[in-house]
Design goal:
It is built from one helix and five strands; from the N terminus they run E-E-E-E-H-E. By secondary structure, it is mainly beta. Strand 3 and strand 4 form a beta hairpin.
């Protein structure tokens, strides 16, 4: 999957705060992401995140 730093990912399941979107802060073997609702930051293996992505939104002006 083509996920970049700064992308906003819409996931299949909601975070307990009710938000369904996460901003990508770092990529590699793990993704570091920040919940757009409550600001909670997580690190999770790439494989787990890629399976649960519903939609990828890019900031304006990028590919």
């Amino acid at each position: 999957m083509d996920v970049r730093v700064g992308d906003v990912l819409t996931m299949k399941k909601k975070h307990p705060c009710g938000a369904q979107t996460w901003k990508v802060l770092r990529i590699g073997a793990d993704f570091k992401m920040k919940c757009t609702g409550c600001g909670h930051e997580i690190m999770s293996p790439r494989r787990n995140i890629e399976r649960h992505i519903k939609k990828i939104e890019r900031p304006e002006g990028e590919g």
